[in-house]
Automatic annotation (TrEMBL):
Cofactor annotation remark: Binds 1 zinc ion per subunit.
Compositional bias (Basic and acidic residues): 10-19
Positions with a binding annotation for Zn(2+): C53, C56, H124, H175
Active-site residues from the entry: H177
Protein name in UniProt: ADP-GLUCOSE PHOSPHORYLASE
GO molecular function, one term: zinc ion binding
PANTHER family given in the database record: ADP-GLUCOSE PHOSPHORYLASE
InterPro entries cross-referenced by the UniProt entry: ADP-glucose_phosphorylase, GalP_UDPtransf1, GalP_Utransf_N, HIT-like_sf
Location of region: Disordered: 1-49
Length: 345
């Protein structure tokens, strides 16, 4: 049966994402059935014994300097360290002044910033989705604590928290870890997201994420969070976890709710692994710039984005900034809902 035959009755559609403020093309003729859309290169489990891994307990001396650990004794559960190969340097002194006289119509500033690693657990064979909800909550609290520390540095404008799982998703180490990159600028994708949220607010007087109620897009929910496939998902089986209550900054969110968020994150990662053949993936905490005006808080709403690596960007995507997604979000949400797992505790 052809791809078109498997998607009888579904025509291509363009959807506008009011959060990212961009269009996405949904083209079901380019894919198999949603239930067959599995990773062709699953991430292998970490080997149980890896004595040479610097992230394992006992090898702390092989790592870059430590920022903090939890708990603060030799039997730690997580550590936050400097990245041994940082994208930006925390050692550049002085303000980041722009350079413009370079013979080209462009601007440049000094590469000041912070690039940290969160080692999520001391055991090499344990992935994030294997951990208890309370321990994942501790990882989330470590992000919160580190962002709060960095926020006191005036020249830092934005902190991106992200996790790369699997080599094809950008992970250079197989031991479970995530990263924070603090920047002296606001990245263009963050600005576009902020502007998209603002545009929706100006038209409706409402926050675009507070308004999400579509039952067909819902995967699961808890007391304070919902998990959905976004209406105009950029990537196949992309998932968002959104706080129900309006909240602009992840690092200002209630500590008491982090274990609940950890449980829902664990559930989404397990559903993705079971349904999509344990794919490499990325997750990102999409929060607001550190310095925002009081009026901007009305439409800025943070969320956690999970993207399984099932398809790569081609020339059209790179050239246009418009993505083609072969799986309609309603179909992806149904497939993920039907993975029968208990809510993680």
């Amino acid at each position: 049966m052809s791809s078109q035959g498997q998607n009888t009755g579904r025509r291509p559609e363009l959807r506008h994402d009011p959060v990212a403020n961009r269009w996405v093309i949904f083209s079901p003729a380019r894919a198999k059935r949603p239930t067959d859309f599995k990773s062709k290169s699953p991430q292998n489990s970490n080997p149980g014994d890896n004595s040479s891994c610097p992230f394992c307990i006992g090898n702390e001396h092989e790592c870059a300097p430590e920022i903090f650990r939890v708990p603060s004794d030799p039997n730690w559960k997580l550590r936050v360290i400097e990245n041994l190969y940082p994208a930006l340097s925390r050692n550049i002194e002085g303000p980041c002044e722009e350079k413009e006289d370079m013979g080209v119509p462009a601007r440049a500033i000094a590469g000041f910033g912070f690039h940290d690693v969160v080692i999520e657990n001391p055991v090499h064979s344990v992935h994030l989705c294997d951990m208890e909800a309370r321990d994942i909550g501790q990882v989330l609290l470590a992000y919160k604590k580190r962002i709060q520390q960095i926020a006191s540095v005036e020249s830092i404008k934005y902190v991106q928290v992200f996790k790369n799982h699997g080599a094809s998703a950008g992970a250079s180490m197989s031991h479970s870890h995530s990263q924070l990159l603090a920047l002296p600028i606001i990245p263009s994708a963050v600005s576009a997201r902020f502007e998209g949220m603002n545009e929706y607010f100006k038209k409706t007087g409402k926050c675009s994420l507070c308004e999400v109620q579509a039952k067909e897009l819902l995967i699961d929910e808890s007391t304070h969070f919902i998990s959905i496939v976004p209406f105009a998902a950029t990537y196949p089986f992309e998932m968002w976890i959104i706080p129900r209550a309006h909240s602009s900054h992840f690092h200002e969110f209630d500590c008491e709710k982090m274990v609940e968020l950890g449980g829902l994150l664990k559930l989404m990662l397990r559903k993705m692994s079971l349904q999509l053949n344990n794919p490499p993936f990325n997750f990102m905490i999409q929060t607001s710039p550190l310095q925002v005006k009081e009026s901007e808080l009305s439409y800025a709403h943070w969320f956690l984005q999970i993207v399984p690596q099932l398809s790569g960007a081609g020339g059209f995507e790179m050239g246009s900034g418009c993505y083609i997604n072969p799986v309609f979000p309603e179909d992806a949400a149904k497939v993920l809902r039907e993975v029968n797992l208990p809510v993680a505790g």
